[in-house]
Design a protein that fits this description.
CATH superfamily: Jelly Rolls
Order of helices and strands: EEEEEEEEEEEEEEEEEHEEHHEEE
CATH class: Mainly Beta
Largest sheet: 8 strands, antiparallel
CATH topology: Jelly Rolls
Number of domains: 1
Distance between the termini: 37 Å
Number of strands: 22
Helix content: under 10%
Structural class: mainly beta
């Protein structure tokens, strides 16, 4: 089920001239998954979003996940203490990858300042806010985030992270595809089922439109070939006329599933409150409990499509991607 959103003034019909009172024609931009064959959003810019004045390849810090990583051979159980990773810069260039494979990259960052404009052209990003608060500014508007939020940033969305109360601690999962709810939690029309650990009322999207001006605005772009810097003739945040779209694709989303705080243990096909016979603290106190929490958390909140080279018709849960998060590696901020 796609949730339609409309902000500002949009034309009656799609793909038609959209002209203001002075006769200026706005530029229509379509952002969609899998080209034109899936859900999409339409944005109306004052200037062309594809007008570039310069493009250059840039060298990045080796810590930004460039390269295949180091094979874990022989396979070794590890406890990654993220709190021991020092804070470094902003929420984009300050990331420290801790796990990586062909499908996902898991990074930790403790941001102390706002990031520059950035977009990931490879796939969606899922960021868990461990501590602090901030704001995700994008072509879709403002999105306030706080501790406990899961933030989904769609692929190729130009955005920046702003720190409002810091440092802003993020666990970022960068995929090579798209992030979506698990199919077994959805009806055939896409509505969350009653047994799902979170539902539509736990989701919120951006609000308002951002109108910024400027010329020769740099945007950091990550692609499969490496890192580039695109210099836009006009500021990308000029969607002042309006936008329309489906919140399941183009728009960034925040989920703070309050039910997960009380319902993290499964019994059969249902979910029971921890307070019935096991508290969260008791579960964290033993190895089996921690594994149960991790499995349920990643199963419930993340489904990531495999890379195009080996993508199947279905999506693949994070714990089956071979990164060892649920079975051999415990990533924690404790």
């Amino acid at each position: 089920m796609a949730y339609y959103q409309r902000v500002g003034n949009v034309p009656t019909k799609r793909h038609t001239h959209h002209i203001d009172e002075s006769g200026h024609r706005y530029s229509e931009e379509l952002m969609g998954q899998h080209g034109f064959s899936s859900n999409s959003s339409l944005l109306y810019h004052r200037h062309s979003p594809s007008a570039l004045t310069a493009i250059e390849a840039i060298e990045v810090d080796p810590g930004l996940g460039e390269g295949p990583g180091t094979p874990d051979h022989p396979v070794t159980p590890r406890h990654i203490r993220t709190r021991m990773i020092p804070s470094s810069g902003d929420a984009v260039t300050g990331r420290c990858p801790v796990l990586i494979n062909d499908d996902v990259e898991v990074s930790w960052v403790e941001a102390e300042r706002d990031s520059d404009l950035y977009r990931n052209a490879i796939g969606d990003e899922l960021a868990y806010v461990q501590a602090g608060s901030g704001r995700l500014d994008s072509v879709f508007g403002h999105l306030d985030v706080r501790a406990g939020d899961y933030v989904v940033v769609p692929a190729s969305t130009t955005h920046r992270w702003a720190v409002t109360s810091g440092p802003l601690q993020l666990l970022v999962i960068s995929s090579r595809g798209h992030v979506a709810p698990p199919r077994h939690h959805l009806s055939h029309n896409g509505q969350f089922l009653e047994h799902a650990p979170y539902c539509e009322r736990d989701l919120r999207g951006p609000h308002g439109l951002i109108d910024e001006t400027g010329n020769n605005v740099p945007v950091l772009v990550r692609s499969r070939g490496g890192w580039s810097r695109h210099v836009h003739r006009d500021h990308p945040f000029d969607v002042v006329r309006g936008l329309q779209g489906k919140s399941t694709t183009g728009n960034p989303l925040v989920a703070q599933p309050n039910q997960l705080r009380d319902c993290l243990v499964r019994r059969g096909s249902g979910i029971r409150p921890n307070g019935v016979d096991q508290t969260t603290a008791e579960l964290l106190g033993n190895q089996h409990g921690r594994k149960t929490l991790r499995n349920n958390l990643f199963t419930s909140l993340s489904r990531i499509t495999q890379s195009p080279q080996n993508r199947s018709a279905d999506t693949t849960p994070v714990e089956h991607l071979g990164i060892g998060l649920t079975r051999q590696t415990f990533v924690t901020g404790i």
